[in-house]
Design a protein that fits this description.
Layout lengths: L1 E7 L1 H8 L1 H18 L5 E6 L2 E5 L5 H17 L13 E7 L8 H17 L5 E3 L3
Parallel strand pairs: 4-5
Antiparallel strand pairs: 1-3, 1-4, 2-3
Helix pairs in contact: 1-2, 2-3
């Protein structure tokens, strides 16, 4: 399975506190995501404020559980506390699983991305499994 994770409202961090603060918040988000993932999972920044988590040998139910754990940990994390701030962020998480909704790696990425955008369009701060 693949998770696509987008930080909700991240642009506001850059706009309000500057790009250095935004970069620091991305480093913190990566650490929270990595700590919330399992040892066998692969976490990567996919660009901008998006992350991808590859979950080997994991079906959609297990992947959704990992996505929910990441969402919960991000929501309670006090971002930029070292900078004297206490910024709260949320994430929108899209889940896609081979071969449930995709037959190729490209289709898997596309399906996870579409699932993440579904969350964005339906209130943010949630997890959506492609094909559900």
């Amino acid at each position: 399975s693949l998770l696509f994770i987008d930080l909700d409202g991240f642009k506001g961090v850059n706009d309000t506190h500057g790009h250095l603060a935004g970069s620091a918040a991305l480093v913190e988000a990566a650490a929270v995501i990595r700590a919330s993932a399992r040892e066998t999972d692969i976490v990567a920044r996919f660009g901008g404020d998006e992350f991808a988590v590859l979950l080997p040998d994991t079906g959609s139910e297990g992947a959704a559980s990992v996505g929910a754990r990441i969402r919960d940990k991000i929501a309670v994390h006090p971002f930029l506390k070292k900078n004297g701030l206490n910024i709260r962020l949320t994430v929108s998480v899209g889940v896609a699983t081979l071969p449930d909704v995709a037959a190729t790696a490209e289709q898997l990425i596309h399906s996870a991305d579409e699932a993440m955008y579904w969350v964005k369009e339906h209130g943010k701060n949630n997890v959506y499994v492609a094909g559900s």
